[in-house]
Amino acid sequence: MSPAQKLHASFPSAGFFRRLAAWVYDLLVAVAIVMLASGLALAAAALFTSLGWVTLPEGMDHAGWLNSSPLYGLYLLTVLGLFFGWFWYRSGQTLGMRAWRLKIQQRNGARITKKQTFVRLITCCFGLGNLWVLVDFKNRRAWHDYAAGTEMVTLSKEANQLYYWKEL
């Protein structure tokens, strides 16, 4: 175990209200990302229509056509999954988590793996699993933390200044 990993294993578990604050912060970023992804999808739909690849039903605009497709919802979920998954895997912190000094890591302080990232994404229930932190006084872990074998810790101000923790 490296010295940095020992240090990270000693940070306290994150509480509910700090998680909630980071979640709200990340929600604002996620809304902006969904708006950008929707704009790109609308532009693609308009291009496909102008090229004759797609024919819209009578009286339906591009936005209505996209909303009627289950693939559009899957596309937006994939974009959000890639956003959260990339940040969790690369640094253990999303933008909101960084602002509130939170970090996702393995129980031994190491960075999470791709498999753990995927399990967290599948089991996160849009943040509802964090409510379990209010009941789990001892460990303060959410459902997705248990499922993925991870934990969310509160970093010190100094530890939060380091960006990727490459030695972990």
Automatic annotation (TrEMBL):
Keywords: Cell membrane, Membrane, Transmembrane, Transmembrane helix. This is RDD domain-containing protein. Residues 14-149 form the RDD domain. The keyword Cell membrane applies. The keyword Cell division does not apply. InterPro entries: Pra-immunoreactive, RDD. It is found in: Cell membrane. It comes from Pseudidiomarina aquimaris. GO terms for cellular component: plasma membrane. PANTHER family: PROLINE-RICH ANTIGEN HOMOLOG-RELATED (PTHR36115), RDD DOMAIN-CONTAINING PROTEIN (PTHR36115:SF10). It is a multi-pass membrane protein. The lineage of its organism: Bacteria, Pseudomonadati, Pseudomonadota, Gammaproteobacteria, Alteromonadales. It comes from the Bacteria. Its main location: membrane. The chain crosses the membrane at residues 20-51, 71-89, 117-135. Pfam families: RDD.
